[in-house]
Structures are given as structure tokens and as C-alpha cells.
Amino acid sequence: MKGGIRYHPEVDLDEVNALAQLMTWKTAVADIPYGGAKGGIGCVPKELSLSELERLTRVFTQKIHDLIGINTDVPAPDMGTNAQTMAWILDEYSKFHGHSPAVVTGKPVDLGGSLGRESATGRGVVYAAEALLNEQGKQIKDLTFAIQGFGNVGSWVAKLIHEIGGKVVAVSDITGAVKNQNGLDIPALLSHKEATGKLNDFGGGDVMSTDELLTHDCDVLIPCALGGVLNRENADHVKAKFIVEAANHPTDPDADEILSKKGVLILPDIYANAGGVTVSYFEWVQNIQGFMWEEEKVNRELKKYMTKAFGNLKSMCQTHSCNLRMGAFTLGVNRVARATQLRGWEA
């Protein structure tokens, strides 16, 4: 099984169960040999020192070491956790079971982590967007993009789109939002964010309301932050023709219906943000083989998996005359059902 471990004050059993179920369908859509899992601790990681986070992680690992394992449950980083968290889990787990680098993914490269893992989710989003746009006869370099969220995923999406030649016209995060209809200088914006910790006061764009970003004039909207940001209050005002769901569940059911009636094409999260878990799978494979890949191979294989998955998703849509979201869930559920049937588990 595969899934992230999150440290967040709102973690509870219902959320973890729901996220594990979503991971089941996501890994099936990506066609990687995992079921879904999830874990978490209810805490506020920013209020804990590094030493406290380490002790918390090690005690947590002591409680779950017999539940996780190379061929049972392979954790990865999620909200509030990172490569260092995975390093602590690996070290603590190894005290019980011997050195086992494949027991976690998303760990530091020096401990067997994969090259390309840091950019994987964002890169996968761009590959997914390319697949959708190519199918529509369009190219990234000819379109404008608005990106909500400028953390790891959003910043990589912006950087890669900029490198391809696409025009990122608006970006937002919790610190503010900036826009430039002629296109933001993304390398300069990244440097500004690293130096100041915020998007405001960037000289290459105009300040805008963070709420305005979702309805900003653009061809492609990419939510990379929280769930439920597109809802019945703002969906009718969305100007984008395409939405690529880099965040988990950014579009609520009411918004989904409104946007579909407007003819907006939505690339669903269980496909669009599967780049992270796909490269986690590559990391697991490398650890088991004891042979690490060059970053070019990681990126090449990721593009192959994302492109193939989109083709399978579209075939499902054509077979059942449904939209992309229903096609993705149908693809995932069918694969799990087929595996269940082949193993003789059907009722």
C-alpha cells in the first residue's frame, strides 16, 4: 500500500480513511502496483522544535513499525512532513527490522531517495496538462495560466510552464497574490519569494486579491493548494477553459456541475497529481534493485506513465460517454475490481 503521513491539527480517522480510499483509486489510475494508505498525527508542526518533531516521529514509528514494511505499507511525505521526517522513520524502523531503505519514499537522496522526487508532483501536473491540451489541439506555449498555491507543487508547475514557453499571468499563496497579463517572470518571482518569504511587493507584477485568482482571466486554472476552493459561490465566475486539479479535491460537487455546464474541461486530481506517487514507486523500485536512476530517466519514465494513463482515461470516457472525472474513477475502480475478482475475493 502507498500513502503519505501528514502532521496537521485537523487530522482525524475519517479524513485518513477518506484519503486512503482516494489513494487506492489514484494508484490504480496511474497503473502502479499499490493499494491506498494514509497516516497522520494531529499536531501543529510549526509550533514544534526540530527535536520535538524528531521525538514525535520516532515514537510514532515505534507504534506502527509492525504495520508498515517494504511489501506491506510504504509511507511518504504529506502535509506537514518532509524528507527529514522520512529519514527519521527509516532510521527508527531499521532498529527493529534492519536497514530497509525501501520502507519509505520521499527520503533524502543521501539515504536512497530518488532524484526528481522533489519536482515529481509538479512535473506530473505539467505532463498531465500537456496530454489534455494536446488532445484538444493546443500547446502550453500558446496559453495563459493562473496558479493558486506557490509551495512545492505550485512553484514547480510555474517554473516548468515558464520554461516550456507558457505564460503564467497570476500566482497566489497564503501571503498574497500577483498578476501580470504579459506573463510573470517566474525565476525572478521564485527568487523574491525565497528572499522575502512572500509574494507581495514583487516588482514584476501587480498585487491582487487572493480570492480573485480563481476567477482571473486565463486559459488554464491550476489549483495547487487546499481542497474545496472552487464552489457554488465562485464557479460561475471562473473564466478559464481548462482546470487542472493539482490539489486534492479543489472542486466541490456544486462547482463541478456548474463548470461542466459552462463547458470547462476539468482534469481530475486522482490523475493530475499522481506524479508524486508515481515517482515514489520509482524510488521504491530503485531501492529494491539497489540501482539508482539518473534524473533524466526518472522524468522520462514519469512522462511515459502520465501520458499512458491519460490515454487509458480517455478510452474509458469514450466507452462510457462520461466526463474526465467519472472516467478516472471508473478506470480506477474497474482495475481494483478486476484484481479483486482475479484473486477470488468476489462475494
Automatic annotation (TrEMBL):
Domain Glutamate/phenylalanine/leucine/valine/L-tryptophan dehydrogenase C-terminal: 114-344
UniProt binding sites for NAD(+): 121, 152
Binding site residues for substrate: 2, 26, 280
Catalytic activity: L-glutamate + NADP(+) + H2O = 2-oxoglutarate + NH4(+) + NADPH + H(+); L-glutamate + NAD(+) + H2O = 2-oxoglutarate + NH4(+) + NADH + H(+)
Gene Ontology biological-process annotations: L-glutamate catabolic process
Gene3D superfamilies membership: Leucine Dehydrogenase, chain A, domain 1, NAD(P)-binding Rossmann-like Domain
CDD domains named in the record: NAD_bind_1_Glu_DH
GO molecular function: glutamate dehydrogenase (NAD+) activity; nucleotide binding
GO cellular component: mitochondrion
A matching Pfam family: ELFV_dehydrog_N
Catalytic residues identified in the record: 38 (proton donor)
Keywords recorded for this protein, A-Z: NAD, Nucleotide-binding, Oxidoreductase
Site, Important for catalysis: residue positions: 78
Annotated SUPFAM superfamilies: Aminoacid dehydrogenase-like, N-terminal domain, NAD(P)-binding Rossmann-fold domains
InterPro entries tied to this protein: Aminoacid_DH-like_N_sf, Glu/Leu/Phe/Val/Trp_DH, Glu/Leu/Phe/Val/Trp_DH_C, Glu/Leu/Phe/Val/Trp_DH_dimer, Glu_DH, NAD(P)-bd_dom_sf, NAD_bind_Glu_DH
PANTHER family linked to this entry: GLUTAMATE DEHYDROGENASE
Family, per entry: Belongs to the Glu/Leu/Phe/Val dehydrogenases family.
Name of this protein: Glutamate dehydrogenase
Origin species: Solanum chacoense (Chaco potato)
Classification of source organism: Eukaryota, Viridiplantae, Streptophyta, Embryophyta, Tracheophyta
